[in-house]
Write a structure and sequence with these properties.
The chain is mostly beta strands. It contains no helices and 16 strands.
């Protein structure tokens, strides 16, 4: 989990030392599972030591290598691009679309891999004046197979798709009986 930081008021730098200052280091947390996170803020590369007045961030696989990268919007400064260079694992990216091919905001998806289920919801914003990719990204680690995905559409209907190939971007369109892939193939 990444948290873009920066105080709201510049005068913070002139106040008591109880504040972290106007410009701050962003925060990074590693998900340990079961609602527990470990602070790894100082371990995510050279950008960890940069202080900025960040106002939002967005995540996407900008370089199309199967992991999420982050772009951070900074007040009165240039954006910061954080390229994920961690050792990669297996993954699945899902574009959940309505009948017209538009993102189906409000859809909830459960991916059932070999080791554990994961749930994500498609929404249009997650950070101030920022929007992440409309694709849902699932890190699968060492899992070699996705048994099924279950899509709960915004209108309350549900659909299950089985035996989904990994390390690809899949397109799931409402009222379509199959899953398509970004490379043009279908199942």
């Amino acid at each position: 989990m990444f948290v873009a930081t920066g105080h709201v008021y510049p005068i913070t730098d002139q106040l008591l030392d109880i504040f972290l200052g106007y410009a701050q280091n962003s925060l990074m947390f590693h998900n340990l599972g079961k609602g527990q996170f470990k602070n790894v803020s100082g371990q995510y590369g050279p950008a960890a030591s940069l202080k900025s007045v960040s106002r939002g961030c967005a995540a996407a696989d900008f370089d199309r290598d199967g992991d999420l990268d982050i772009i951070v919007n900074n007040l009165d400064s240039t954006p910061l691009f954080l390229e994920n260079q961690s050792p990669g694992g297996n993954w699945l990216e899902l574009r959940i679309q309505d009948e017209r091919g538009m993102p189906a905001y409000g859809a909830r998806v459960q991916v059932n891999g070999e080791s554990r289920p994961q749930v994500a919801e498609l929404y249009s914003s997650a950070s101030f004046l920022s929007q992440s990719s409309a694709a849902l990204h699932f890190g699968l680690g060492k899992d070699q197979h996705v048994k099924s995905i279950q899509v709960h559409w915004p209108d309350g209907s549900q659909r299950e798709y089985k035996d989904i190939p990994i390390n690809r971007q899949a397109i799931v369109k409402k009222n379509s009986g199959d899953v398509r892939y970004a490379d043009g193939s279908g199942k």
